[in-house]
């Protein structure tokens, strides 16, 4: 009898159970055991400047995923490991995407380039439902590997000034409590968060559905860049939804400058969708956004057009992903050495003046400058 597969699913930027192609592919193998794993990378913890609110969003998203897995199978949960060993690979982890190939191997630097290349790839598949069944993991009794046995390099902790206590989440392979649990901010040495934006698939999908229902779908249909801004909220008032949560907000007006006295402002509902962090961490599938907005746009009596509308914004997102892959992630992440970046000349006679203007948020793009300070 042929042995059944033993599958380890590495969750990375797909922290969801809805519209999860890799999850569906793994379960389609009909495995004997199925291990849902997240690797808590010390590179991200020590070598990237990450604020407490961003870490809080990620941790909440991981906990939400773990709870979703447990709801489907009470023996399953997200298993967080802190040590990953792999063979050095000289090749890239991802093959060159087809859209790059259709663009002659060059970065897609305009939306027209991306649309022309992507049009040759066929239509976007519809999103898939969450699985109704999960295979439980196998034996989880592993020997505890201590930090002394496998030390984590923390010579350059870029977040040291933010921490208020030592990092303990890497002390053992199975976590401080030996249960592979999602780390806490306390285990990262971080203070309490200040954000009001909650992470997770449940929260992200609730926001998407609420946005799509707003004004009977007209808000999504008429959404248009650059007429909306993630930095400008409108006056809103909270209204209790049927499930008892006060997450759905009704809009009173559009102009931030003309607020009536006593108006309540909720900064968690800017004039944009606020879906960016949920797409970034994979809490919501991009296909679910695409098709929900597509269906609204084709049925609306009046709607915005590409590339300014919501579908156009998703295309811009994919355009830059494709450009990054064509340029190379290392070069794309910096100014110097990035072939599609136009940096300011640091030796220019007006360089100090430009820097001072940026710091005062009064350059050519004052609002953008203010957001980056």
From TrEMBL:
GO CC annotations, alphabetized: cytoplasm; nucleus
Protein family per UniProt: Belongs to the DNA photolyase class-1 family.
Biological processes annotated in GO: circadian regulation of gene expression; entrainment of circadian clock by photoperiod
Residue segments, region Disordered: 122-145, 223-254
Cofactor note: Binds 1 FAD per subunit.
GO molecular function: deoxyribodipyrimidine photo-lyase activity; DNA binding; FAD binding
A Pfam match: DNA_photolyase
Annotated ranges, domain Photolyase/cryptochrome alpha/beta: 5-152
InterPro entries: Crypto/Photolyase_FAD-like_sf, Crypto/Photolyase_N_sf, Cryptochrome/DNA_photolyase_1, DNA_photolyase_N, Rossmann-like_a/b/a_fold
Protein's name in the database: Cryptochrome
UniProt feature coiled coil, ranges: none
NADP as UniProt keyword: no
UniProt entry keywords in alphabetical sequence: FAD, Flavoprotein, Lyase
UniProt keyword Amino-acid biosynthesis, yes or no: no
Organism classification: Eukaryota, Fungi, Dikarya, Basidiomycota, Agaricomycotina
Cofactor(s) this protein requires: FAD
Recorded name of the encoding gene: UVR3
């Amino acid at each position: 009898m042929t042995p059944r597969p033993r599958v380890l699913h590495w969750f990375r930027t797909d922290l969801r159970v809805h519209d999860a192609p890799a999850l569906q592919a793994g379960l389609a193998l009909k495995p004997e055991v199925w291990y849902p794993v997240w690797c808590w990378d010390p590179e991200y913890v020590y070598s990237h400047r990450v604020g407490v609110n961003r870490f809080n969003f990620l941790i909440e998203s991981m906990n939400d995923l773990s709870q979703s897995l447990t709801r489907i199978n009470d023996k399953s949960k997200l298993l967080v490991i802190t040590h990953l060993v792999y063979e050095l690979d000289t090749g890239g982890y991802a093959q060159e995407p087809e859209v790059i190939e259709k663009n002659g191997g060059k970065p897609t630097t305009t939306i027209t380039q991306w649309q022309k290349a992507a049009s040759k790839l066929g239509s976007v598949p519809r999103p898939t439902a969450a699985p109704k069944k999960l295979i439980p993991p196998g034996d989880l009794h592993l020997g505890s590997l201590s930090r002394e046995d496998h030390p984590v390099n923390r010579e350059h902790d870029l977040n040291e000034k933010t921490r208020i206590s030592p990092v303990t989440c890497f002390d053992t392979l199975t976590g401080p409590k030996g249960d592979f649990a999602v780390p806490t901010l306390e285990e990262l040495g971080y203070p309490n968060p200040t954000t009001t934006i909650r992470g997770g698939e449940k929260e992200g999908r609730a926001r998407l559905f609420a946005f799509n229902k707003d004004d009977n779908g007209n808000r999504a249909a008429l959404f248009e860049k650059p007429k909306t801004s993630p930095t400008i909220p409108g006056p809103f008032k909270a209204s209790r939804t049927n499930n008892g949560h006060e997450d759905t907000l009704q809009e009173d007006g559009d102009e931030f400058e003309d607020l009536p006295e006593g108006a309540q402002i909720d900064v968690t509902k800017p004039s944009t969708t606020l879906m960016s962090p949920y797409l970034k961490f994979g809490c919501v599938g991009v296909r679910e956004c695409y098709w929900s907005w597509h269906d609204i746009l084709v049925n609306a009596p009046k709607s915005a057009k590409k590339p300014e509308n919501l579908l156009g914004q998703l295309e811009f997102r994919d355009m830059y992903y494709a450009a990054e892959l064509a340029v190379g992630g290392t070069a794309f992440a910096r100014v110097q050495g990035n072939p599609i970046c136009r940096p300011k000349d640091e030796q220019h006679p007006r360089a100090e003046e430009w820097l001072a203007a940026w710091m005062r948020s009064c350059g050519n793009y004052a609002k953008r400058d203010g957001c980056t300070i």
